C-alpha cells in the first residue's frame, strides 16, 4: 500500500502514525471483511487498541494515558480509517467525545476514578441523541430527578456508537425542563448502574462493525458525584465536545478516502485494457488527480483545525468546514474508487464498495452537513457584522 503523504508532521508524529498504520494493516485488515459481515468488532481487537495506547491518547500519563496532543489522536483516527472506518470511530468516540469531556469537565475525583479504567479496559459512549431529538439535540426528553444523594434518570437514547461494548456512558439529561437547554446536565453512568440497559442494535448501511444501539434508562440511579461539570451546564459540554469531535470525524473521512484511493491506484496501475494499464488513460488520469487533490486539501483542513485546537485558538468554524468538506471528499473518493475498479469494484470481494458504504455516515453523525453549514453561516455573519 502506498504510504500516506506527509503533511508537515514532526518526527514523533510521523513515527506514531506509521506505527498505527502498521498495526491497522497487520491486525485489523485481515478481519475487516468478516467484521463487516458479522456487524461486530472482533472482541480480540479491543485489548490490542488499549495496548497500543490508542484509547487514552490525551489522558495524562499519571492515569495511564499517553498524554499526547489532540492532533495525535486525529492521526490515529485517520490512520485506522484507511483500513477500517468502524475501528476508527471506535477509537474516535473514546478519545474525542468521552475522554475529552472527562478531561475538560471532570472533577479530579472523577478523573482519578475513571481514567485508569478508560486507558486500560473500559470503552466509552456518548449519549446525546434521542428518537425525537437529533439535529435539535437540546430538545432531548431524558429527565434527571434528584432523590436524596442520587440522580434518577429516565429516557431513551438512540444511535449510540460503541453502545454494545461500552462500560461507561456520558448521558445528557434535563434536570429542569422549565429552564429549557439550561436544565441539561451531563452524567457519567456506568454500565452496571441499576436501570441502564443496552437496547436494540441498528442494522446499518455502513460502518457495520461499529455498534450503534439504543440506551434505555429506567429509573437509573446515578450518584451525585457522577455529575460531569456543573448541573445545568451540560449543553455547554455537549456543544464544546462536539465541536472537537467533528475534527475526529473529518479525520475518519480523510483516512477512509485515502484507503479507497490507495487501493484504486494500485489496481489501475495493474489492470490492463487496450494493451496498457488503465491508469495511463488520460480520462482516468484527470479523475484520479482530481480525487488526490481533494483528499490533500481535506487533510490540510482537518490538520489545521486540530492544530488550532491544540494551540488554544478559535477553531469552531474550521472544524465545521473540515467535517463538511472531508465527508464530501470521502463520498466522492470512495464512489470514484468503485468506478476505477469497474465491475469488481461493485463486489464485496474488493474493499472499495465497503468504503463507499462507510462514507455516507460522515454527512450524518456529529451534526449533519446542513448543521455544519448552519454553524459556518452563523460564524460568518458574526465575523462580517459591524
Ligand atoms: C451510525 C450512527 C452513529 C451515531 N452515533 C451517535 C452517538 O454516539 N451519540 C449520539 O448522541 N448520537 C449519535 N448519532 C446520532 C446522529 O448524531 C444524528 O443521527 C444526527 O445528528 C442527525 O439527527 P437525526 O438522525 O435525528 O436527523 P434529523 O435531525 O431528523 O435530520 C433529518 C434531515 O433534516 C435536516 N435538518 C434538520 N434540521 C434542519 C435545519 N434546521 N436546517 C436544515 N436542515 C435540517 C438534516 O440535515 C437531515 O438531512 C449517530 C447516528 C448514526 C446514524
Write structural notes for this entry.
This protein has about 375 residues and is α+β, with helices and mostly antiparallel strands. It has 3 domains: about 110 residues, Butyryl-Coa Dehydrogenase, subunit A, domain 1, CATH 1.10.540.10; about 110 residues, Butyryl-CoA Dehydrogenase, subunit A, domain 2, CATH 2.40.110.10; about 150 residues, Up-down Bundle (Butyryl-CoA Dehydrogenase, subunit A, domain 3), CATH 1.20.140.10. Helices cover about 50% and strands about 15% of the residues. The protein is built from 11 helices and 10 strands. A 4-stranded mixed beta sheet has the order 1-4-5-8. The chain has a 4-stranded antiparallel beta sheet with strand order 2-3-7-6, covered by helices on one side. A hairpin with a 2-residue loop joins strand 2 and strand 3. Helix 1 packs parallel to helix 4 and helix 9 packs antiparallel against helix 10. The model has no long low-confidence stretch (mean pLDDT about 95). The site of flavin-adenine dinucleotide has 20 residues, from strand 1, strand 3 and helix 11.
Amino acid at each position: 500500500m502506498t504510504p500516506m503523504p506527509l503533511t508537515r508532521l514532526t518526527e514523533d508524529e510521523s513515527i506514531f502514525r506509521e506505527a498505527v498504520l502498521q498495526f491497522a494493516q497487520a491486525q485489523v485488515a485481515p478481519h475487516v471483511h468478516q467484521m463487516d459481515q458479522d456487524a461486530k468488532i472482533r472482541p480480540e481487537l479491543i485489548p490490542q487498541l488499549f495496548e497500543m495506547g490508542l484509547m487514552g491518547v490525551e489522558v495524562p500519563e499519571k492515569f495511564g494515558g499517553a498524554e499526547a496532543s489532540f492532533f495525535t489522536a486525529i492521526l490515529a483516527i485517520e490512520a485506522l480509517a484507511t483500513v477500517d472506518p468502524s475501528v476508527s470511530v471506535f477509537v474516535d468516540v473514546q478519545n474525542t467525545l468521552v475522554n475529552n469531556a472527562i478531561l475538560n469537565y471532570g472533577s479530579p475525583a472523577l478523573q482519578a476514578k475513571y481514567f485508569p479504567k478508560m486507558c486500560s479496559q473500559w470503552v466509552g459512549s456518548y449519549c446525546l441523541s434521542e428518537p425525537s431529538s437529533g439535529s435539535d439535540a437540546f430538545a432531548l426528553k431524558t429527565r434527571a430527578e434528584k432523590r436524596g444523594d442520587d440522580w434518577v434518570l429516565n429516557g431513551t437514547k438512540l444511535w449510540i456508537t460503541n453502545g454494545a461494548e461500552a462500560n461507561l456512558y456520558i448521558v445528557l439529561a434535563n434536570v429542569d425542563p422549565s429552564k429549557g437547554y439550561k436544565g441539561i446536565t451531563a452524567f457519567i453512568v456506568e454500565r452496571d448502574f441499576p436501570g441502564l440497559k443496552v437496547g436494540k442494535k441498528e442494522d446499518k448501511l455502513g460502518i457495520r462493525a461499529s455498534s450503534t444501539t439504543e440506551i434505555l434508562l429506567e429509573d437509573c440511579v446515578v450518584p451525585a458525584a457522577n455529575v460531569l461539570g456543573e448541573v445545568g451546564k451540560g449543553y455547554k459540554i455537549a456543544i464544546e465536545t462536539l465541536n472537537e469531535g467533528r475534527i475526529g470525524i473529518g479525520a475518519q473521512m480523510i483516512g477512509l478516502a485515502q484507503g479507497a484511493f490507495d487501493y484504486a491506484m494500485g489496481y489501475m496501475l495493474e489492470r490492463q485494457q487496450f494493451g496498457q494499464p488503465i491508469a495511463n488513460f488520460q480520462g482516468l488520469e484527470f479523475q484520479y488527480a482530481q480525487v488526490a487533490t481533494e483528499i490533500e486539501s481535506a487533510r490540510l483542513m482537518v490538520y489545521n483545525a486540530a492544530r488550532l485546537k491544540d494551540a488554544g485558538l478559535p477553531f469552531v468554524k474550521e472544524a465545521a468546514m473540515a467535517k463538511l468538506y472531508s465527508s464530501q471528499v470521502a463520498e466522492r473518493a470512495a464512489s470514484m474508487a468503485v468506478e476505477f475498479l469497474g465491475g469488481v469494484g461493485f463486489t464485496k470481494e474488493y474493499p472499495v464498495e465497503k468504503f463507499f458504504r462507510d462514507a455516507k455516515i460522515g454527512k450524518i453523525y456529529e451534526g449533519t452537513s446542513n448543521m455544519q453549514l448552519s454553524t459556518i453561516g452563523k460564524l460568518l455573519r458574526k465575523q462580517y457584522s459591524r
